[in-house]
Write a structure and sequence with these properties.
By secondary structure, this protein is α/β, with parallel strands linked by helices. The chain has 2 domains: about 100 residues, no CATH class; about 110 residues. About 40% of the residues lie in helices and about 10% in strands. Helix 3 crosses helix 4. The longest helix is centred in the middle third of the chain and has 18 residues.
Length: about 250
């Protein structure tokens, strides 16, 4: 087994092994929550992420969580799951907690200014300029185009409850902030593209921040590719995206 033979045996790891959600589709489609939890404990998991999370805003989610806990108890009582497995897990958790106990005050004053400085630094480092540069962008008009089709936003506020569920599209937030910084900023569409002899076209792509709910990137990719052929003064901004899975020139 990977956890017992490789992680514990070969690699010598003696810490806590925590499962991912036991209610993800890959597990839920093949196992009942209790069966999955029992198999996970047998495999060497120390702590299980509750197998019935508040995914669907169901009023019965707490009952399902308790049912999983009692299911593990029943598995021990019937002999399906060795009590020594539970004992070993408890020992590891308690040992970990004892090792981390350090004297500390109940309240430690903190500085909002310091927090804001760290947040700003993180935000600055989260912006990456891939290529090229804009020397006169402050003096020229900016035309802002959203390459993401409206149909992609239908499920922006997803009820699964595992966030982030942000009601505002990233494009809207970017548009509002850009308008504050550049007085000559105008939102356009593919049907209302202006003459760009004296200005820049800023094309924005974005993805969904909720895992498993990615936006369809096909139309956005095609839009960027088309505009990169038609316009030289083009800037492509990728929001909520780790990568931009297409080739385009950026000036």
């Amino acid at each position: 087994m990977i956890l017992q033979n490789v992680l514990r045996g070969d690699m010598g790891f003696e810490g806590i092994i925590i499962s991912d959600s036991m209610n993800m589709g890959a597990i839920q489609n093949h196992y009942q929550p209790v069966d999955a939890a029992v198999k996970a404990m047998k495999a060497g998991i120390t702590m299980i992420m509750l197998s019935e999370e508040h995914y669907d805003h169901s009023d019965a989610y707490l009952d399902k969580q308790l049912a999983m806990i009692h299911g593990l108890i029943d598995a021990v009582e019937t002999g399906e799951l060795a009590e020594s497995v539970i004992d070993d897990a408890v020992k590891r958790v308690v040992a970990f907690k004892l090792a981390k106990l350090v004297p500390q005050t109940l309240y430690q004053p903190f500085s909002f200014a310091d927090n804001q400085e760290v947040a700003q630094q993180a935000a600055n480092e989260g912006v990456v300029w891939l290529r090229g540069g804009l020397k006169d962008v402050a003096d020229k008009p900016l035309y802002l185009l959203n390459a993401t089709p409206k149909s992609s936003y239908h499920n922006l506020m997803n009820p699964r409850g595992i966030g982030p569920n942000q009601a505002q599209p990233a494009f809207d937030a970017f548009r509002d902030e850009l308008a504050k910084l550049h007085i000559h900023c105008q939102v356009v569409t593919k049907d209302t593209l202006p003459n760009l002899d004296d200005g820049y076209l800023v094309v924005v792509t974005e993805n969904h921040p909720l895992p498993g709910e990615d936006f369809d990137q096909v139309e956005a990719k095609q839009t960027v590719q088309q505009l990169s052929r038609d316009f030289s003064n083009l800037v492509v901004v990728g929001l909520r995206s780790l990568t931009m899975p297409w080739n385009t020139r950026m000036w």
